[in-house]
Structure formats: C-alpha cells, structure tokens
Amino acid sequence: MFEKLKQKLKKIVERVTKKTTEEAPAEIPTEKPTEVPPEAPVEAAPEVSPEVPAEVKPEAPPEVPVEVEPEIPPKVPALPKVAPKVTPPAPEAPPAKPKILPPAKPKVLRRVVARITRRELTPADVEDIIWELQVGLLESDVAVPVSDKIIDRTKELLTGRKLGLTEDPKKLVEEILLHAIREVLSTKKKVDVLELIKTKRAKGEPAVFVFLGINGHGKTTTVAKFAKYIVDHGYKPILAAADTFRAAGIEQLEIHADRLGLEVVKQRRGADAAAVAFDAIAHAKARGFDVVLIDTAGRMQTDVNLMDEMKKIVRVSKPDLKIFVGDALTGNDAVEQASTFDKAVGIDGSILCKMDADARGGAALSITQVTGKPILFLGTGQDYKDLVEFDPDFLLKALFSD
C-alpha cells in the first residue's frame, strides 16, 4: 500500500538526515590537533632541564663537545626555548586546556561535539528538501491544496530546528512528516456509526444510510461489506435496491444478500429509486430492522438528471448518513467527485475502496481535507470482512513502515 509515496518519503527522511550529519568533517579538524602531544614533553621538561646542566658543567668541558654534541645540541637549544615558555605557565595549563582539548578528544566524544554544533537546518537546506517533498506528493496524486498544507507545516517545523545531544535526525524528520500528515487526515466532524445505530434503536427507529458515488467504483459491493460489518456488531440490517437505472444492479445486490442471509426490498428496473428507499424504510419500521442500507445508481457528477434523482432520494429518505463511496485508485479524481457530491447533497463521510492496491495514496490524504468530512471505512480486499474502520495511524504506519 502506498509504495510510491512511501519510497518518496523515505528518500526525503534520508536526505534530511544526511543534511544534519554531512557537515561533521568540516567542523572537526583531525590533522592539526595531532600537535597536541606537546603535553607529554611539557611534563618531562622540568625533569630534564635540571639534570642536563648539572652533568654538563661539572664534567670535563672538552669531552662534552666530542661525545655529547651529536646528542645534546638538538635538546639543549630546545630547552632554553621550551623551559621559559612551558615551565612558567605550567600552573596555568588547566585553564588553557579547554582550547586545546576539543580537537584532541577521542572519536566518540568528537562525534558528540559535532552533533551539538552542526544540527541546524537552514532555510536553504529546507527549501531543497521541500521541493522534493512537493514533487513526491504531486506524483502521488495528492490534491494541490492538501500538498501545500503538508509542505507549509513541514517547512515550519523543520526550519531552524536544532537537535539535542541524543536526538536521532531520522526519527525527528519522520515525526515531523507524521505530524504534518496527521493534521491533514484529521477533521472536526466525527462520525461513530455504531453509536448512531444504538441511539436510533433506543428511539425505536431504524438508522438510514444512503450510499452515493460514481458507477463502477465498488458501491454495491461496499454496501454488502457494510451490511456484514453491521451484522458482526449485533444489529439487523435490510438492503434497499434503489439502483433501478443500471442493468443487473438489482440482481447484483440480491446475490450479495443471499450470501449474507439478508433481506432486500426491490422493485422492477426503471422504477422510482426514491420510492424503493421509502418502501425499505417503512418495511424496516414495521419488521423491527435496526438499519436500512440504500444502494443507489452510480452517476457521474456531471449528469444533471441523475444528480437530481439523488437529491430526491435524499429528500424522501431523510438519511442519518450520506456516505460517498470512492475508488482510491482514481486518486485526485475521487476527491473531486466527493467534493461535487458534497456540494450537491452534503455528504457526511467517505469510504475508500481498493486501498490494498493503492500505490499512491493521494485520495486518502486529500479527501478529508478537501470535503471537511471524515473517512469512515477503508476497503482492503474482496472479501466481505475486508472493510476496516478508518484510523489515521493505519495510513501513517503504511507510509512509514519498512
């Protein structure tokens, strides 16, 4: 799931991580610090200086130039120069050490120092990374307004960010991206399907759900999956075959109902779809059904007549939820369709089908932000049980898992 977008995000995380670590060699000189060993001779100097003059003066001066000259000259001339400079500041060496020690630290400590001094991303660094993120989101068919929001938030959180001593740059960047994407997936409107059914049942009324969407995007199959979900939670649904426009639309719903052991309210092909919905609700009230699931004909958002018919169905059935069913594989098209249906009748939430085959993830990341309505369920396979309640963490895990 989301393989293309996942790979893009991985590259971005690696790139940011590299940005925060590639400066280390420039900040820590490794060749100059090798001159620090003078510390060893500094301690030895005071011991040698008193002994050498003591041996040279009392013994025969003539012998010194013959035997000692080849060995001492390199040391003796150095002593007068070193002694006056090193011995006096010997007690002052401790305060001078902080200036000399950093380059001479072991490799592990050197890396620790580098972590503190190098890990701040400049606006220039972030712009380069943001460009790659923008390309990745657009290639994944994420809607432009949504892409802009993710980018702006990521840029805001990355620019000037400094890492602490023990922080992992890769983990930090992933957390920032997760935070930005989670904001896009969240919405103020919350819908609890089971709680809604429970509330309606307490009033002695069935909950009514109308399913809307484009033809050929898995709407009827999704209705059947939704019915299975309702049954698994202890409620009794009835199906309404209000797709009287499509050939075999009624028969397809009947096949699903037979497999699940459910009842279907239907009329002939070409009948008034709103009348079918009305009959199903009346039947549910009379027979004690908990939920009415109304399957409607798929229609393009540009088909004025069918869109008017849908408005009539909604007006007659007065549904508790109007659910848009979209194909995740169509990416930004599904988002545009959901937006159009929302403007026409006001959808309450969405179900995205074929998420298991979606390599881009554009629809999932965009639809909530564009419509302002939550994703309710995700279709993750062809079996009736392959309908899962939407959880933002499910998508985020799919995006950032190895």
Describe this structure in words.
The protein folds into 2 domains: 108-185, Up-down Bundle (Four Helix Bundle (Hemerythrin (Met), subunit A)); 193-400, P-loop containing nucleotide triphosphate hydrolases (Rossmann fold, 3-Layer(aba) Sandwich). It is elongated, with a radius of gyration of 38 Å. It has helices at 3-21, 24-27, 39-56, 63-68, 78-86, 93-104, 107-118, 123-139, 144-158, 169-185, 193-202, 219-232, 249-260, 273-287, 304-317, 332-345, 362-371, 392-400, and strands at residues 207-213, 237-242, 264-265, 291-296, 321-327, 349-353, 375-379, 387-389. It has 402 residues and is an alpha/beta fold. The protein contains 18 helices and 8 strands. The chain has an 8-stranded mixed beta sheet with strand order 3-2-4-1-5-6-7-8, sandwiched between helices. Residues 23-70, 72-76, 81-86 and 96-118 have low confidence and may be disordered.
* CATH fold assignment of the largest domain: Rossmann fold
Distance between the termini: 12 Å
Please tell me how large the radius of gyration is.
Answer: 38 Å
How many structural domains in the coordinates? 2
Biggest beta sheet attributes:
8 strands, mixed
* CATH hierarchy class name of the largest domain: Alpha Beta
Instruction: Please give the number of β-strands.
Output: 8
Coarse morphology: elongated
Poorly predicted sequence stretches spanning 5 or more consecutive residues = 23-70, 72-76, 81-86, 96-118
Please tell me the CATH architecture of the largest domain by its name: 3-Layer(aba) Sandwich
How many DSSP H or I helices? 18
Oligomeric state as shown: single chain
Order of helices and strands: HHHHHHHHHHHEHEHEHEHEHEHEEH
Write out the CATH superfamily name of the largest domain. Answer: P-loop containing nucleotide triphosphate hydrolases
Average residue pLDDT:
77
Tell me the strand percentage band.
5-15%
Spatial strand sequence of the major β-sheet = 3-2-4-1-5-6-7-8
Portion in helices: 55-70%
Which structural class is indicated by helix and strand composition?
alpha/beta
